[in-house]
Amino acid sequence: MFWNDDWSKGSESWNKGCNMNLPAAYRAVDKVLDTLDFNALFAGFHKYKYALCTGSEICLDGKMIPGQDLFRGNTAIEYNGEYLAIWNMEADPVEDAEVLAYLLVHEMFHCHQRAHGEKRYPSDLALLNYPGDIENFQKKYNENLCLADSFEKNDEKSLRKFAWIRNMRMRLCTDVVQQELEAETIEGMAEYVGLKALQSINRKKFANVTSDYIQKLRAQDRLLFDVRRISYYSGALCNLCLDNHGMEIRNDFASKLTVYEQNPIAFDDAPITIKHYDFVSSCYAEMIVERERVVTECIENWEYTACNALICGYDPMNMFRVGIFIYCKYFVCLNVNGTVQTIHTSVVLQLDENSNQTIVGYYCVKQHG
């Protein structure tokens, strides 16, 4: 889950210097959360337990407990037999209770998904191998522009154009677009519910966030190629567009159909001209060159360890793939013969050539002493 410093400017801080007052932050955000009608955000949704944490301490139910390795990142976890939303106030400090409430609702919806047996998850490791099809990216950028226009102008015609282009991509690139739809189902849906909460809490801040998302869809930069990340924005805005046109969002957790497939958007049969943008090919080429350089430098300078293992934990927002190598910026968890080992540093994994998940070894900074 992402947030922008500008969204929370002018708020009272509970972070004084290096001292993070987690109980104060918990009390402040809990007051905001108590104003929400969770069932109105999504039928059957309710407030889940949550925790605010740093690397060394956790505030759960307003009480402090020592830090635990399980409480890593901003996500939903299973803890003591129940699902729990967590936010790391050290890695991603938020000094606005209203913004923090919105972010926690996003994570709470992930709890709700898990509690209802959600299975429509994208394969993060398969998404790392998303094909470099420039024509597909050209179409995807046109699709993003139509979606941004539809939300910004409340324009149904632009929404139909968006659906026409997406339907074409679903036919031409079925497997990879299915991964996008699954990412939107998980992350876009959670963000949509979070944004509806923010809309109820503070309409101005809701407008600021959605305006930022519109600009992200229109941006002529590498975000276009970060399929998982951009699905936060496209999935959320697509659902908000349906809201704006009076359509009730269907999301049957038991169905194999994604949220987009459960909420079909009518479109005209007349073909739409796809405009080509020079940045798509040039920006993609620059990204590939830079990634190859990073991986090559790591391989040349880091120590190699042979290791037959399965990738079982990772930060999907901070990793990329080059050929048979996966670069993980912060950490990775490996299942080695049934034992989970965590590497708490940057690492380059070498994949088995026939797998997206099995590795034969890895490179990381040489250990001294």
TrEMBL record:
<protein>
    <submittedName>
        <fullName>Uncharacterized protein</fullName>
    </submittedName>
</protein>
